[in-house]
Amino acid sequence: MQTPWEYRYAHRTQKMGSSVIRELLKLTEQPDIISFAGGLPAPEVFPVKEFRQACNYVLEHFGPQALQYSTTEGYRPLREMIARHTARYSVAVTADNIMITSGSQQALDFIGRLFINRGDYIVVESPTYLGALQAWNAYGAQYIPVRSDENGMIVDELEAALRIGPKFIYVLPNFQNPSGSTLTLERRKKLVELADKYGVPIVEDDPYGQLRYEGDHIPSVVMLDSEYRGPNGSHYSGNVIYLSTFSKLLAPGLRLAWVIAPPEVIRKLVMTKQAADLHTSSFNQYVAYEVAKGGFLDEHVKVIRATYKERRDVMIEMMEEMFPDGVRWTKPQGGMFLWGILPEGMDSAEVLKRAIEKKVAFVPGEAFHPNGGGKNTMRINFSYSSPDTIREGITRLGMTLRELISEKV
Amino acid sequence: MQTPWEYRYAHRTQKMGSSVIRELLKLTEQPDIISFAGGLPAPEVFPVKEFRQACNYVLEHFGPQALQYSTTEGYRPLREMIARHTARYSVAVTADNIMITSGSQQALDFIGRLFINRGDYIVVESPTYLGALQAWNAYGAQYIPVRSDENGMIVDELEAALRIGPKFIYVLPNFQNPSGSTLTLERRKKLVELADKYGVPIVEDDPYGQLRYEGDHIPSVVMLDSEYRGPNGSHYSGNVIYLSTFSKLLAPGLRLAWVIAPPEVIRKLVMTKQAADLHTSSFNQYVAYEVAKGGFLDEHVKVIRATYKERRDVMIEMMEEMFPDGVRWTKPQGGMFLWGILPEGMDSAEVLKRAIEKKVAFVPGEAFHPNGGGKNTMRINFSYSSPDTIREGITRLGMTLRELISEKV
Question: What residue in A sits closest to B39 (Cα-Cα)?
């Protein structure tokens, strides 16, 4: 159907388009495919019973308020709870440092709106989170990729990037999406030092920080930055905008996340959100607060950790058994993804095509590299599928890889 | 606190700022003020019991799905229900014409993103919905205001506007926010004719269409446009993007609205939403579907109509009694707002200052006029306050107006 809208798109829209990968990934939605492509939490760990209790409690005691329009910055008791939680794990902030967003994706979009002019440079890890690239491409961002390895961003290569004059540094220090890597304490400290040296602020995206299955918790970048700027290092420095979410701790279907920023940035985020969607669902904020307020999350996260650790271990065990020589993979200390590395010259998009025929899927790694590269890498999710499904899926993927490698020889 | 973010805002952000009106309206949030300033539904009519039943049902039967990530376009049964509803009231569309948004404000924002280049002209009624201006200002829109009266946009003045070459026409035909006016059938037909003559598409924003308290339903612009383009006029023409919402029929705290557009526009809206917030809360979509699916809304809207009609009638009765000569007001056939018109030369922002001293508030009309004007107008909400509160509030507002007018003489 030709409509008068067809020639009326804005410049920013004309660059949007379906990608080859997007089309391939649509195939992975067929019900008989074992998909390690998504980034979904395990639905088995959603606290359905607690949600029912909370919905009933909220509607019995706060029905009219919870169903009404509410403030753009978010439900104050929820923001205060997040402030207490942040003070416990990291640095002292108040509710005035916090805005609730409809998922972390919205926080990324708003950061783009607030800060990115067409042509601005953003320092990112390579590979990095695809959703951030999608959000910021709309504002005409350009990227300075800094390579990363199993220990996160290779900070020795950061200084050259900072000398280009980027708007900010974007980093996912814990169990990164897509690579599963975790930035070491030494590298975090170096990152903070270099950012300070060049006066460049940081956006720290931390959706998975609580999902650690082994090793010790590493202090967040926001905390290290505040300490570095001392003398009162337990107080938020304002140099790092920090993002986290309830999507992995409670349930993504609520679309609840938060951003921590200086009050002046929060004020501008609030104006942005007012024009974008007025506010995040009041009902969901009341319900999440009710579920979380009594310390439930501390217990619940243990269940999630145990579930995902088992799935990660099963996946790695199966890879050791089924994957051919020459294929490597990381062992992430937490999160939801591991990273597969094929022999140089192999193309994971070709692997995906063959894998789909065998009814198994993953995401080819190239798309996560803002300036290209990584054709031989793959993101593999271990949180969503049951251990048995993981066994079957990795068996199929191993067969696919063995076939392709033997054809090549 | 000075932070490195301060000099890093994008151009589009630097124009954002707190307005005088915004600051004044903050004062109206004091609990002892009777506020006719907001645009809130009456919380007494929220179907709390039905929500409880629906939450329990959804969590019992669909817990894992309802709490999981879901598709960007929205929950298919909900979209199919909206398609059936639209076919009943207006034109034949399918779920492929529909995307769920987080409130209509988000649909307005996305329309701006998709279509507005800096400097593009949009034809709007003057006055028009402030949220649309806020959303589109961010994309650098300019406005061609067409004057309106109690019968909506004065379409005789539309042709000159269309010759300027606007991107689209934005119109709220039913019980408009802020003026309460309703576009007559004759004017709707003329609007459709002129839009066709110049090949300019239309965005029809219809949050209040079901909230009619007297008179006959007038066919929507999307329906008239489809008929005009016949021969198969019962099918959606694609020329009108139509917006509506559950905020006024169920509850705004859910943040659930929808947009009807040609499938190609929907595809681009989906890509936009994917980068903006991934999807609207799956849980809320399941719950709204459960509440609405059995025809509940048809019964519930009768309760809303009866409640709001009484409030409108009480407000007008009190205005007749308490407002001084020279002050006029409209009698809207539906919706949530009526429009006060002060004698020429009076400034409603000055009235608001004095009114706040007397603990009553409204919104001065000037802000709704994209290119200025309307200093002597005021938007007055009648849906939120109880009849007794309306009596007291209009008494206070009448005293304020009498004082100011007598001081002037």
Answer: A69
